[in-house]
Amino acid sequence: MANYYTDIPELKYHLNNPMMERICELKERNYRDKEEFDYAPQDYADAMDSFDKVLEITGEITGEIIAPNAEGVDEEGPHYADGRVEYASGTKQNLDAMVKAGLNGMTMPRRFGGLNFPITPYTMCAEIVAAADAGFGNIWSLQDCIETLYEFGNEDQHSRFIPRICAGETMSMDLTEPDAGSDLQSVMLKATFDEKENCWRLNGVKRFITNGDADLHLVLARSEEGTKDGRGLSMFIYDKKQGGVDVRRIENKLGIHGSPTCELVYKNAKAELCGDRKLGLIKYVMALMNGARLGIAAQSVGLSQAAYNEGLAYAKERKQFGKAIIDFPAVYDMLSIMKAKLDAGRALLYQTSRYVDIYKALDDIARERKLTPEERQEQKKYAKLADSFTPLAKGMNSEYANQNAYDCIQIHGGSGFMLEYACQRIYRDARITSIYEGTTQLQTVAAIRYVTNGSYLATIREFETIPCSAEMEPLKARLVEMANKLEACMNKVKEAQNQELLDFVARRLYEMAADCVMAHLLIQDATKAPEMFAKSAIVYLNHVNAEIEKHSSFILKFNTNELVSYKQ
């Protein structure tokens, strides 16, 4: 049977990044748990071996159980009855296998029953699962909501809720409402304090809630009467055992059928405050969403891998005009670009996850003791990098997943339009990735300040100083010219001092910056492992060179007076 980890050597390459030594040192607090927990690592080598083994187990479960169940789950979907959700039979088997393997609460401290894994190997597990069934990936990976509860909840909440997630209970984040999608500051679910019962009560409706009948919910609600903006919102913990929330319906979706997307009705539901009042959107949801966006980036890479696998296998088998279609330039061009986008997007994903790992570990240490000045600088550096890279990772990988799924069907030709081929499920599943947890347009909004303040360009210029192999040197020289075009476009837009113009060309600037970043990362990977990445580096540089040329030509030749022509 297939193993979704060992069959993809690129994953092990990214796991063995030099930054992991610092990440493990911080996460393990110099390996202090080894005295208390027999499964805690003794040192760095032991920690890396543990990650490798767990990833292999995840890959095995994915290959032997989740992947074979995927088509049946897609067809059956979850069931709705009397205000509750019942998972598809294959989903139940998947969850049972993951729980029995101890793959829940992976990033949580061992004292709560977790594995104390960094974000990076956990994100790899999420990618692996999504490559087999993106819908099930949603249910399983929502366990990372517990990160927000761990970060902002109190010790009592930690002791009551975290062990339950580590034992296999499920989570959801209840943010969206019928009139509050991307505009979360318009959330109106009402939270009122019940003096008699000394608890909060939630009333209202939530919509498009992934895994909406989960055991534990993090809920954004309006706690401050008379407010209408984000400053009146707080975060609450709702426990399904307390009752008071019914599923009104399961949405009938285009894809990710195994993942129940629900409309929820809160009727005087008992809840408790997580963290402080008024910080629900301003602080807590931002942290929650950043984690979710990294998760969707991982899901997107998994789908890109699945699309590439299906396209490659079909192209090798399908014969036309006396030879396999993979030998036709029109087909191998598509496959090479699919692989290049996959490798570039994966490089960006794990560069981002490593940045997140370092700053999150230092944040956690700061709750135990005062950070040294050097640690504070390190925390600040990696928090900024994580914040700037996350919208690139989510936005670009979700777009690449959609493009790769599209090309996968194209390679299949007429067969790709038939339901018996997996490529149509991958195509349908991929479509949501550029929409939920913040559309690509919102990722652009989150990222554009890092274009205009020069942060991305500074990172790119820093990458230019990193030595590369002789084979990669000509590509790197071309990449310097691409960065120069980004800088010229950025300067033109800034000099115009026109906010509407900036908003109009923001997506193009965003993509140019992302293209340069990913190309540099791929050159670095190809320098270290040419047998794995050299071809993709060449293909990707050619691809993004054309993309950057297109965008720069548009921006540099654009006349602001032409904006009116675009308004419908």
Explain this structure.
- With 568 residues, the protein is of the alpha+beta class.
- It contains 17 helices and eleven strands.
- The protein has helices spanning 9-15, 19-27, 44-76, 89-100, 119-132, 134-141, 146-152, 155-166, 280-317, 329-366, 373-412, 422-430, 440-452, 455-464, 473-496, 499-528, 530-557, and strands at 79-81, 84-86, 171-174, 190-194, 199-210, 216-222, 233-239, 245-250, 261-273, 319-320, 323-324.
- The strands form three sheets. Strands 3, 4, 5, 6, 7, 8 and 9 form a seven-stranded mixed β-sheet that branches. A two-stranded antiparallel ribbon has the order 1-2.
- The longest helix has 40 residues, at 373-412.
- The chain is globular.
- The N and C termini lie far apart (54 Å).
Biggest sheet details? 7 strands, mixed
Q: Give me the count of strands.
A: 11
What is the quaternary state of this protein?
single chain
Beta-strand residue fraction = 5-15%
Weakly predicted, low-confidence segments: none
Could you spell the SSE succession in H and E letters? HHHEEHHHHHEEEEEEEHEEHHHHHHHH
What is the averaged pLDDT score?
Answer: 97
Indicate the radius of gyration in whole angstroms: 24 Å
Please report the number of helical segments.
17
**What is the general shape?**
globular
Helix content: 55-70%
